[in-house]
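Entry 14. Ran structure prediction on the chain below.
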Amino acid sequence: MDTTELKKNKKTFIGIFFLLVITIVTASYFYLQYLNVHSSPFVLQNKYILLFSYVVLLIAIFALLLALIYQKKWVLGLKGFINSEVKEKALLSHYQILTKYANDIILLMDQRGLIVEVNHQALKTYGYTRKEIVNQNVVLIFAPKSIRGMSKIVKAFESREGVIFEAVHRKKNGDEFPVEISARLIEIGGETLIQNSIRDISEKNKIVEELEFSQTLLQKVFDSLEEAIFLINPTERKIENVNHAAIKMFGYEKEELLEHGSEILFGDGGKFDSFIKKSFSIYAKQDFYETELTMQRKDGEVIPVYFYGKALIDAKKKFSLIIGVVRDISLLKKTEQTLIDAKNKAEEMNRLKSNLLANMSHELRTPLISILGFAEILIDSSEDPFIQDSSRNILYGGKRLLETLNVILQFSKIEAEKAAFSTELFDVVSVIKKLLEKYKQFAEKKNLKLFFENDAEECYAETDKLLFEEILSQLLNNAFKFTEEGTVIVVLRKEEDSAVKYFTVEIKDTGIGISPENCKIIFDEFRQVSEGISRGYEGLGLGLTIVNRYASLLKGTIVVKSEIGVGSSFILRLPVSESAHSGIQPLLVEEKKPFSLTEFFKETKTESDLPVVLLVEDDPSTSDVITIFLRKVCRLEYANRADKAMQKAAEKKYGAILMDINLGNGPNGKEAMEVIKKNSLNRETPIIAVTAYALDNEKRTLLAAGFTDYISKPFDKIEIIEKLTSCLPRKN
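Output, structure tokens:
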């Protein structure tokens, strides 16, 4: 039998009890009346005893009837009622034990707002004794500013549901502290009460305040950064936060960026999704991602940006956030483009300058071959002394002009940093001896003695052979130019300094000498010892400047020692090749002994014995000069265009071909040579390049292209005869 049924039976029992009392009283009244009328004196004297017995009898009968009605059920119900009372007291005792030692404050209050019960934590926290707080209105523990919060407790009664709210409580000593109250209804002993579970949230609020302060500080730092920063949620494909720099950079309000940032910044077409997917693939390998992309401002302008992203991974090892730093690189790109344009323009100007120098070389050298060539022809053919002297003056002036042109072109190449440089291993002794052979004529003309002292025995260098020869030529030119009597000596030595091996080439003369103060300026551009209208020697003052620059290109040095009236000594110092010391020797090609005209004509009996040579030249004057120079050396056939030359070479075998490089419109000489080399008739025929271009290491370029040899315009009679006869096949 449950408690509800037991309470119902209890009420029924009380009703029956009152009915029994009324019945007994009524029956007793009528029984006394009956005794007064019909009983004997004995009965009258003992009528109350009889009445009591009568009442007891009625009660016994009533109890018997009640037992018969309820039988065992009533007995068990009574027993259950007694047990429920015991159980309810036990539960109440258990509840008190649970709440008594709870960490939170437990406070019971009735509907009037009176405190019914509290636990130890409440007494400890508020500082009251149990007597001081129990039966007091709950207002006692509320701070004045939070009394209105009590209305929320009333709502718990009205809604019959629990409520949770925050308030400020006050201790006995007046200290106030924040609390979180969880109020709910409970029933104890048939009475409805409110249980308040109260928690001191001072530490919690402190942590929250510190957290809010940190967040505020972080947001201020975040907003104060000059770089635009985006916090991107990669999972939801949205922007969660931006700083002021990002707002300023793109011109949108913060709300716009947070709601539609991915669309308005990246545009339509899934560009943002592609960016996120690519980011995922990068972050799978590393925790940062940097790239360049374009983003759109509010005014519609699309700007290039540099993006640096850092991925944050949560506890589940998923990408939870991307911190993206965005930098506007519009100015950088404009500057970069400006630099590219400037570079392209500079390269174009440099190309135009190179073309100008090349064209100037060609346009000046080509007429010089006519001037020098016909002057030489007049000297050889005329018997008139006046014509011969005049022709010699023309020849001298032309050669002087040629030397000036060469110096200007060389200096222009150096200034434009276009001086070609190519490394090769060569025998220094052989190069010097070969060069000195050319200067024997200078020595003989000026009655000077030329010596070569080889103190190195053998010496190899791994550097640019042509530049090395040019340095020695310039120094020898100066030695003969400024020496009127005496000697010019070339000395080769090997030396070692701080474990670095090098060789020196010293060129000594017995010329006019240089003063110590002038030794400091002779390597400067356009400077000479004698300057102005009183200068005693020809030249632009660029020869030694070129020598010094070339020496630097070869990683060498040049120094001068001189004394007025005694002579000068120029010392070129260059590294010795280590390859030579390790046993590696340069490839030495056996030089062909050039024909002399006497030997040639001894072998050539008739004109029909002369070899047939194809001359490819578009300048008529040059053709005339070459024809006169070579009339006793070979029989010439002519072609003024590349296509004609290729046609002739396909039809006939030639002893040699003289090929001009610049042939005007159509294919050039180099292209014609390549076609002729493929022809079976002239595949092995020597082809000599004839060019007026003297820039960009023309000789090396043409030889590498496949030409047998090279001759530069203008040239004299001996030069072209030696060049051609060295290539022609000798008779056995």
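Residues 529-540, 581-595 have pLDDT under 50 and may be disordered. Will compare against last week's run tomorrow.
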